[in-house]
Backbone:
């Protein structure tokens, strides 16, 4: 039988500081990008929010012979559409997105902009020929999306609320199935994935649309899956080997499930890659978010969720012990105090020594 | 015993598969030979699956009913009714005001004498229905306030009524299979309209939005044969009333035009030839709610000269007849959406027929007549979201979605066969069954397949194969620890099952939140993912297990397992 990993013995937890440092750096990079972009005068905004969240109009036009963006802009300016953003579609050279932002102003003003967006673009583009899908027509408007400022804000709030509610739901389920420390660790890891992915969207200014939110929620589910597979194994191993330390059990569990983790993540990565390559423009944001999410979701289950859970459980254990035997000082992390149940706190140096030779 | 169990499982699986296949590609009528050909299957599949607007093309509109405007006009109407009552009954009332600022709706009545408040309340009660308003006297001022509960109920009523009117307008204009439903939370007063196949919704948008408030009013002017009294500016018209407009008068624009008008346009964005102002009496003689019928008829001015003829209901006709009988040679105006469309003097008594001339084009006259027939919207509406997808883009999306699905499947199948050999076949069978049953589930629940829905299918492929990977890896582990093949399979399934349940439940939790609170595209995604995951519990666990059982039962003693 072909096997990716045979008897791996990697001491994952020994590297927890490096892992957490990497994650913190990535999150800081995203946060930094968002803050710099938001506060620097004349710069872009923290996120490149699509019309779904910011309001505005996007007209997708398909030309027989596409004029250059400059020509299109000039034509639009002639019909007094001044603030249009012209964006050619990458994989379809004959198609172009024309974006009209909502230019603030009063409610009535933005309402009128919204109502007339399509008409205004159409009258501008009519300078190239007629609109329609007949042979003689020069171009066709194949899609429009217009979202009002109020609706945009509504969608934005809803997206945030849904994401947070889903996280709480997952936390409660894991707390019910395992213990709440497990749930908290899993949710922290997933939250980390969401932040890192959003960081990428801020750094590269990819557009955040409604489907990106769907992708974020999917990655939440996916990353929690990975974490649960490991936690399930930890729970099982703790029942089987009551004398082993949580530290060792966690490392063993990660190693035992490593083939599954790599195979599944690899396969999901490949199917998402199929979406990036063949899914077309509409799904691009969605599949990009997932692609990043799959990578960090897998990483965080091993490198974030497990160390946090172990650290937390040991804190609780130590607290319980110090209250039980009031005379003895609480165990300091790093000393090799074996507790009654056979668990021991994270050894800071011992772990490194026992690191196995196996590696990916 | 074991054999019987296996037989039972096989029968269940075969039945479910056949039913699934029938649901997916079986026609919903008596099958013909053509249904068994490739093109026939494709056509039935297309008609069985309920495609979303983003895949089949169409328009999606979200509008909000401005219920605050409705409550405002209700308050004003009631205030003017009280005013009328006070005048008729000679009540000691100094002033009646409607206050509608800041989400509070109040009618404030100032009496000449505090002791008369009771008398006023009694008299008003008899004439005006104020059962939803709370009365509170203070000094010589009586206040009726609309309660919060009543506000909510009335706003809800207005939204429902607007929805009905929109439905009837869509029906009248001939939009095929429109979907009209409430959108968002109940208190958001939003209505969602989906129109498959409508690529340019401009006309429908105007049509739905048209308030079409018709009033027949008395124009204040010296009687015919003198010409009707008009004013060049609004200020001039007001000056004729002594600077301020009294409660029983209104100043309305009057556009005499030679150009055809387009319905739905407001006074300031058309090209009026001469914009004038007139003073009219308030309230109107009759209004649009008394309308029985309206239709577009061609006028004398040729192809671009259409007018609208209307007929009144009996009660309205009686009022109208009485007024016209008593006011021969007086001027009457037809006011549409707050603008005078035409002015004519009364030649003789008119009972229930009338005409609105305004040099309309045929389409605008048709649209106007249609909106007049369907009744006025209780409150203005505003568009909050408009999304249209042309059929070509929809087909494109289906193509790229299907392509991504197929490539995803191929990747996964190739890998599983390569990595798990014989057992890989197991996973592939389970995967294909999952796809079939997922489509069947979509059709069965009449769920809508959207582009993000296709993404959900692709993700389900990933999740489905994960279940198999979990099981197979576990079986391998058990084999390595020295267990016999049957017990390794048994243990592998049993242990992995716990994990599979946990992973599925968490994903379903996050999808359910998307389904319940999400909108349009997000819902489509959640639907396919949830259906796919539920089916996966059957296909990846039950079916795959049965295949293993079958393999075990074939040989008395299995020497090796291809995994």
Residues:
């Amino acid at each position: 039988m072909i096997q990716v990993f045979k008897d791996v013995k990697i001491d994952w937890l020994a590297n927890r500081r490096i892992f957490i440092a990497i994650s913190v750096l990535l999150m800081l990079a995203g946060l930094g990008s968002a803050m710099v972009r938001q506060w620097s005068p004349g710069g872009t905004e923290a996120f490149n929010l699509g019309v779904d969240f910011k309001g505005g109009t996007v007209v997708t036009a398909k030309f027989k012979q596409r004029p250059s963006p400059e020509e299109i802009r000039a034509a639009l300016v002639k019909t007094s559409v001044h603030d249009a953003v012209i964006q050619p579609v990458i994989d379809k050279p004959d198609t172009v997105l024309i974006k009209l932002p909502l230019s603030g102003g009063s409610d009535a003003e933005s309402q009128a902009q919204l109502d007339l967006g399509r008409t205004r673009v159409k009258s501008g583009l009519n300078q190239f020929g007629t609109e329609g899908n007949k042979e003689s027509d020069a171009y066709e408007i194949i899609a429009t999306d217009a979202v009002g400022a109020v609706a945009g804000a509504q969608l934005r709030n809803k997206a945030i609320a849904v994401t947070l509610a889903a996280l709480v739901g997952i936390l409660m389920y894991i707390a019910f199935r395992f213990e709440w420390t497990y749930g908290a660790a899993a949710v922290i890891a997933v939250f980390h994935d969401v932040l890192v992915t959003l960081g990428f969207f801020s750094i590269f200014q990819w557009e955040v649309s409604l489907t990106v939110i769907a992708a974020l929620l999917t990655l939440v589910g996916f990353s929690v899956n990975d974490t649960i597979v490991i936690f399930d194994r930890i729970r099982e191993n703790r029942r089987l080997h009551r004398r082993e330390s949580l530290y060792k059990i966690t490392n063993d569990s990660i190693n035992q499930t490593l083939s599954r983790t790599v195979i599944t993540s690899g396969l999901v990565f490949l199917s998402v890659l199929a979406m990036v390559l063949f899914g077309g423009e509409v799904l691009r944001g969605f599949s990009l978010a997932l692609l990043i999410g799959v990578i960090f979701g897998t990483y965080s289950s091993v490198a974030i969720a497990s160390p946090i859970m172990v650290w937390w459980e040991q804190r609780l254990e130590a607290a319980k012990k110090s209250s039980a035997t009031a005379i003895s000082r609480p165990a300091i992390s790093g000393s090799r105090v074996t507790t009654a149940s056979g668990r021991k706190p994270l050894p800071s140096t011992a772990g490194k020594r026992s690191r196995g030779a196996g590696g990916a | 015993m074991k054999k019987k169990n296996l037989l039972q499982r096989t029968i269940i699986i075969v039945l479910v598969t056949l039913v699934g296949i029938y649901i997916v590609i079986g026609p919903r009528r008596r099958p013909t030979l053509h249904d068994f050909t490739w093109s026939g299957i494709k056509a039935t599949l297309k008609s069985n699956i309920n495609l979303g607007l983003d895949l089949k093309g169409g328009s999606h509109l979200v509008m909000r009913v401005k219920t605050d405007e409705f409550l405002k006009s209700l308050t004003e109407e009631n205030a003017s009714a009280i005013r009328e009552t006070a005048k008729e009954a000679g009540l000691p009332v100094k002033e009646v005001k409607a206050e509608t600022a800041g989400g509070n709706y109040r009618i404030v009545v100032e009496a000449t004498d505090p002791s008369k408040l009771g008398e006023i309340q009694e008299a008003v009660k008899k004439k005006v229905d104020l059962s939803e308003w709370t009365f509170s006297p203070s000094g010589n001022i009586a206040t009726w306030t609309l309660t919060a509960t009543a506000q909510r109920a009335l706003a809800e009523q207005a939204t429902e009524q607007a929805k009905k009117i929109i439905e009837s307008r869509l029906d009248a204009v001939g939009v095929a299979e429109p979907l009209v439903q409430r959108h968002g939370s109940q208190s958001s007063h939003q209505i969602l309209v989906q129109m498959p196949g409508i690529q340019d919704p401009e006309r429908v948008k105007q049509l739905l939005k048209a308030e079409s408030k018709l009033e027949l009013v008395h124009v204040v002017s010296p009687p015919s044969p003198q010409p009707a009294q008009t004013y060049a500016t609004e200020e001039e018209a007001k000056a004729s009333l002594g600077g301020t407009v009294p409660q029983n008068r209104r100043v309305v624009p009057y556009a005499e035009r030679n150009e055809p008008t387009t319905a739905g346009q407001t006074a300031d964005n058309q090209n009026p030839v001469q914009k004038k102002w007139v003073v009219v009496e308030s309230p109107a003689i009759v209004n649009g709610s008394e309308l029985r019928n309206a239709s577009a008829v061609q006028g004398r001015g040729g192809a671009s000269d259409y007018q609208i003829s209307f007929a009144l209901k009996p009660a309205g006709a009686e009022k109208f007849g009485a007024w016209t009988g008593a006011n021969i040679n007086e001027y009457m105006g037809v006011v549409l959406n707050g603008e005078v469309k035409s002015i004519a003097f009364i030649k003789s008594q008119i009972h229930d027929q009338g005409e609105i001339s305004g040099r309309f084009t045929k389409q605008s006259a048709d649209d106007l007549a249609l909106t007049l027939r369907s009744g006025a919207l209780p409150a203005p509406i505003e568009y909050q979201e408009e999304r249209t997808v042309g059929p070509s883009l929809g087909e494109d999306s289906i193509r790229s979605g299907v392509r991504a699905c197929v490539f995803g499947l191929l990747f996964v199948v190739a890998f599983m066969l390569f990595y798990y050999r014989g057992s890989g076949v197991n996973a592939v069978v389970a995967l294909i069954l999952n796809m079939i049953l997922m489509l069947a589930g979509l059709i069965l629940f009449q769920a809508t397949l959207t582009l993000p829905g296709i993404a959900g299918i692709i993700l389900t492929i990933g999740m489905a194969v994960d279940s198999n990977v979990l099981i197979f890896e576990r079986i391998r582990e058990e084999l390595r620890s020295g267990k016999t093949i049957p017990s390794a399979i048994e243990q592998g399934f049993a242990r992995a099952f716990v994990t599979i349940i946990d992973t599925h439940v968490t994903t379903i939790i996050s999808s359910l939140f998307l389904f319940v609170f999400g909108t349009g595209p997000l819902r489509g995604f959640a639907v396919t993912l949830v259906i796919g995951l539920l089916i996966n519990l059957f296909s990846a666990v039950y079916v795959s297990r049965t295949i293993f059982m079958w393999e075990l039962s074939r040989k008395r003693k299995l020497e090796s397992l291809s995994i």
In short: Chain A has a mean pLDDT of 82. The radius of gyration of chain A is 26 Å. Chain A touches chain B through 73 residues (CB under 8 Å). Residues 56-147 of chain A form a domain with the Alpha-Beta Plaits fold (CATH 3.30.70.3220).
